[in-house]
Task: inverse folding
């Protein structure tokens, strides 16, 4: 089952990270730690950092460099207006998919 969870997670991880950032700004390590606390123990920091670079390039987040006690400044990501619109679309798509999957799970019956 772990492989299946990993594969499914790849498809929704961007939405999950944006949802986290909709609550508060965070840096990559904080996001990774939170995901691990929620049971996503196989998430690699590198995966999250690569995803953050992609959403930054697409203009979905704003980035602020803040001083760090341990080394160079950290990039703190926050969801901007474009990112909020994208996240709203993600949730609409998620709802559509989960409704259809639930129908399939119930033998194709309409709910």
Result:
């Amino acid at each position: 089952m772990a492989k299946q969870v990993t594969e499914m997670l790849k498809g929704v991880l961007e939405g999950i990270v944006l949802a986290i950032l909709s609550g508060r700004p965070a840096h990559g390590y904080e996001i990774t730690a939170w995901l691990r606390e929620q049971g996503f123990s196989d998430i690699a920091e590198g995966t999250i950092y690569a995803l953050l670079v992609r959403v930054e390039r697409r203009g979905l987040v704003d980035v602020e460099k803040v001083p760090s006690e341990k080394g160079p400044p950290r990039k703190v990501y926050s969801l901007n207006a474009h990112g909020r619109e994208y996240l709203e679309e993600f949730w609409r798509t998620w709802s559509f998919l989960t409704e259809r999957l639930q129908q399939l799970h119930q033998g194709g019956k309409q709910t």
The chain has one domain: 2-105. The chain is about 65% helix and 10% strand. The mean pLDDT is 92. Residues 2-105 form a domain with the Arc Repressor Mutant, subunit A fold (CATH 1.10.10.10).
